[in-house]
Amino acid sequence: MTQDKQLTVGLAITGSFCTFDKIKETAAQLVANNIRLIPIYSFHVQQMDTRFGTAKDFRSEMERITGQKGIDTIPQAEPIGPTGYLDALILAPCTGNTLAKLCAGITDTPVLMAAKAHLRNEKPLILSISTNDALGMNFKNIGMLMNMKHIYFVPFGQDNYKKKTNSMIAHTELIGDTLTQALQGKQIQPVILAPQC
User: Fold this and answer.
1) Global pTM value
2) Which residues face 40 on adjacent strands?
3) What is the pLDDT of residues 46-70, one digit of tens each?
4) Cα separation of 108 and 102, whole Å?
5) For residue 121, which phi and psi values (nearest 5 degrees)?
6) Residue 26 class from Cβ within 10 Å (0-12 exposed, 13-18 middle, 19+ buried)?
7) Rounded distance, CA 183 to CA 93, Å?
8) 38 touches 3 (CB < 8 A)
């Protein structure tokens, strides 16, 4: 995607830590396409060090890529609604936990508050899922969110159908194309793609 007018887009990050390298690549691509990218961090992303790296290092890298400190509290996320300054909001990765809470209208993290606040402006909310229970407990939530106005999905597929039969993950390389379509009110197709392994 190439943008003439600079867009302001939120990138809300939740705790699917194994996908963080892909998210950093996506962030760099979006910034390279003249997008002002505002990171928004869940509490787990802010606090948890994992085998994939430390929370501090990840946030420092995102700040370097985007040039933005980011949003890390619920009060900081709430003004997204009344000010309406985001053209779109991308949840990437969007865990099963966040997916379920979003579907239930729960707003107990900065990411979920950002999503709730943004949706009130009837602008695109884009979900890039990464969940081990997409074809299990979260299957119904995906279906419900797929049917809601202003919510769009990055195409996704099973990431390891032999060992994790219910697990699905978004094709993050399609986030930019999904954003382009969502800004026109269209869901990119096809939504379900072949397994990634």
Assistant:
1) 0.95
2) 12, 71
3) 998 989 899 999 999 999 999 999 9
4) 10
5) -90, 0
6) buried
7) 20
8) no
